[in-house]
Design a protein that fits this description.
By secondary structure, the chain is of the alpha+beta class. It contains 19 helices and 25 strands. The protein has three domains: 257 residues, Beta-Lactamase (2-Layer Sandwich), CATH 3.30.450; 161 residues, Heat Shock Protein 90; 115 residues, Rossmann fold, CATH 3.40.50.2300. Strands 12, 13, 14, 15, 16, 17 and 18 form a seven-stranded mixed β-sheet that branches. Strands 1, 2, 3, 4, 5 and 6 form a six-stranded antiparallel β-sheet that branches. The relative contact order is 0.07.
């Protein structure tokens, strides 16, 4: 009995040990398999989420680019409508050559614009930017976009991709409806867009991730895509894309087992552009997600198989994965913040560039108008021998108005980076010291001025007059921020901006700079005010106490010469504006005073040939030359000027505008004239930098230049300075 009981006990113990061994053995297989299966499931979900996040970031980037592109088209159309605002269709056709040149100049630096066309109410093209003359018997009356504007009275329209009848290239178009003063349909203004522009943009965004990127109309028509589709270019009404935008019109994400374009299963994210029936879509193939997941799990499996350390290895792997995921998440957050900063800088830069181009065109026209108005006022003043006090008062009021308008125009050009600059080496210490008395008179007794000038200061590259205006603007802003008085500190120093600083600040090139810092003890600014401080016409002053162009003018000028501007401020603790000027190795030039009045006896001046296409400006220029004692001949374009030059051998000075009609600008005219008459001297006049004698904002070396608007005394000083 005892032996039987002992045998049964041994048997039970043996069974329990075997079961435990079996359980442990099974556990060494099942637990790793279960953990691996769970990890695989989690990894697949994580991989899917990572691809969707990358998909969203890529969509954000493309959305910003596409939106900026269409906003550019809208600005172009707005500019075109302003150019032809007062012209009828017959007048547009009559002035085709001149309008063609203006449209061509408007878009020549815009790669996203293939061409601009203006159509009449019958669909016939009147003028184009890149086609001259318009071929006869071409009509767009049968084009869907034209019928949409004419018949459906649509104000805006984005066409399908089609082949142009004039240029035989594939394009799609953004167009807007023209209407007569009575509201009737009067034609169409359209901007031709090359799909290849979006193709390049999409290709750069897709990179090595093998994403598909598309620009699609709301009706499913594919306008641009990367990679280029080989077959169908329109989504069917029953496709996943059309179903998705019907359910969620603004934005969304969906999965499709078979794309309507190339038949590949994808995850697709899309977003609609504002006010346009156009979507930006980005897709990633489902096979790529599975391959990435399988590659990841294959790596885990390769290093996780040893059964003897399965639990330890899995625990270690889990801990390492957690650390790796946290680090990867931190990097993703940093990348997201960096991309958001870059996108914001891109949007701000594009906005400032677009506004600057519009501002420059307006300022150019105003300079011509102010030249005629100011010249007429000056001539009236010179021809009234003994004016009454009332006449003197009204003339002074008119001169003051013209002067203020000219100053405002110069500020607009400075913001647009279109003012002509005479760049030379500048000693910033000498400039600040020379401005001390001017600043004390301007800022008043309640503001104490302190200067901290650095020894061994480098020479800076700048236009001295514009730099003085910039420092004065900053000082006046600082004074306005200290209504109860305070301390204004102007400091100079050598500075080096490294790659890290350049990467964190838009439009900054690393290198050596000369810094001028203007600090105040005033009210300071919050971050929202700092972000908008350089925008044109933005001001925190009361209505009527400021134009809002001071800081924007300073910003435009400093950027034009390759410098940098940075604001540091805290509410209640004052502000500091640091101006960084590029360093130069040349020595600072000695300033020459040309402000003294110059008088020329009648008949003592040279024989002058005045060339100007604007009749008002030409008439004043002729009268001003005669006031300077010159004998004057006048011409409206280059061909007429050359004929007069051949006819009159005594002409000693060519006084010409830079922008001339007829295919020959002022620089080309001067070259042809000097080739015939090597002893001929040339004096240019212009109102902004987008011309032949100014490059990158700087007047060419050896060029005699007079900016619009100008006075008789300024012209006389210039003529005398040229040796006459």
């Amino acid at each position: 009995m005892r032996r039987l009981l002992k045998l049964q006990t041994w048997t039970l113990r043996g069974t329990t040990a075997a079961d435990a061994s079996f359980v442990l053995l099974a556990a060494t297989l099942i637990v790793p398999v279960m953990l691996f299966a769970g990890a695989s499931w989690l990894a697949y979900g994580e991989t899917q989420r990572q691809y969707e996040e990358r998909l969203g970031r890529t969509l954000d980037l493309l959305y910003v680019g596409a939106r900026a592109t269409f906003e550019t088209q809208q600005l172009v159309v707005s500019n075109v409508l302003s150019i032809i605002d007062d012209l009828s269709n017959s007048e547009i056709r009559q002035h085709e050559a001149r309008l063609h040149e203006r449209l061509k100049h408007l878009i020549h630096k815009l790669p996203q614009v293939e061409d601009v066309f203006i159509l009449d109410r019958e669909g016939r093209p009147l003028v184009a930017a890149n086609v001259f003359p318009i071929p006869p018997n071409v009509t767009a009356a049968d084009r869907p976009y034209f019928m949409a504007h004419r018949d459906d009275r649509q104000d805006r329209y984005v066409s399908e991709t089609f082949r142009s009848r004039i240029k035989s290239t594939d394009i799609f178009q953004y167009s807007e409806r023209r209407q007569a003063p009575d509201g009737a349909f009067d034609g169409v203004v359209l901007v031709a867009i090359p799909p290849t522009y979006f193709g390049k943009l999409f290709e750069q965004a897709a990179g090595a991730d093998n994403y598909t990127t598309s620009l699609v109309r709301a009706d499913g028509e594919v306008l641009a895509r990367h990679p280029t589709p080989g077959g169908t270019t329109k989504f069917a009404p029953s496709s996943k894309f059309m179903q998705a935008i019907a359910a969620s019109p603004a934005s969304g994400i969906y999965n499709t087992s078979q794309s309507g374009i190339d038949g590949i299963a994808r995850t697709v994210a899309y977003r609609k552009l504002p006010d346009l029936p156009v979507y930006v879509a980005v897709g990633v193939a489902s096979d790529l997600v599975r391959e990435a997941w399988m590659h990841r799990m294959g790596t885990h499996l390769l290093f996780g198989l040893p059964a003897t350390v399965a639990l330890f290895a899995l625990a270690l792997l889990a801990s390492r994965r957690a650390a790796s995921q946290a680090e990867a998440l931190d990097r993703l957050r940093e990348e997201q913040i960096r991309r958001a900063s870059v996108e914001e800088s891109l949007r701000q830069s594009q906005k400032m560039t677009a506004v600057g181009q519009l501002t420059a065109g307006i300022a150019h026209d105003f300079n011509n108008l102010l030249t005629g108005i100011g010249g007429a006022i000056e001539m009236v003043g010179r021809r009234v021998p003994q004016p009454t006090p009332e006449v003197v008062r009204f003339l002074d009021l008119a001169r003051t108005g013209v002067s203020r308008a000219a100053t405002l125009t110069q500020r607009m050009l400075a913001f647009a980076r279109q003012q002509p600059l005479q760049i030379e080496p500048v000693d910033a210490n000498r400039l600040v010291t020379g401005m001390s008395e001017l600043l004390r008179r301007t800022l008043g007794e309640t503001v104490q001025i302190e200067t901290v000038l650095s020894g061994g200061l480098w020479r800076a590259t700048a236009d001295p007059a514009q730099l003085e205006a910039a420092v004065l603007n900053l000082a006046i802003n600082a004074r306005d921020a200290m209504p109860g008085g305070g301390t204004l500190t102007i400091e100079t120093a050598n500075a080096h901006l490294d790659d890290a600083y350049a990467a964190a600040n838009a439009e900054v090139t690393p290198g050596q700079f000369v810094m001028i810092a203007v600090s105040d003890t005033g009210t300071g600014m919050d971050q929202q005010t700092i972000a908008r401080a350089f925008e044109p016409f933005f001001t925190t002053k009361e209505r009527g106490q400021g134009t809002g162009l001071g800081l924007s003018m300073t910003y435009g000028y400093i950027k034009q010469i390759g410098g940098h501007l940075k604001i540091y401020s805290e509410v209640g603790h004052g502000s500091t504006v640091k101006v960084y000027l590029p360093r130069t190795q040349a020595e600072a030039a000695t300033q020459t005073d040309l402000s003294a009045a110059v008088s020329v006896a009648p008949g003592a001046g040279p024989v002058v040939l005045v060339v100007e296409d604007d009749p008002v400006v030409r008439e004043f220029a002729v009268a001003a030359c005669r006031e300077c004692g010159c004998t004057v001949h006048e011409a409206g374009d280059g061909e007429q000027a050359l004929r007069l030059l051949d006819k009159h051998g005594d002409i000693a000075l060519l006084f010409t505008d830079v922008g001339l009609p007829g295919g020959m600008n002022g620089r080309q005219l001067a070259g042809a004239a000097v080739a015939r008459r090597p002893d001929l001297k040339v004096l240019y006049m212009t109102g902004y930098t987008a011309n032949a004698i100014v490059h990158h904002g700087v007047i060419d070396a050896g060029v005699n230049f007079l900016g619009k608007p100008f006075s008789v005394s300024a012209l006389a000083a210039k003529i005398k300075g040229m040796g006459f």
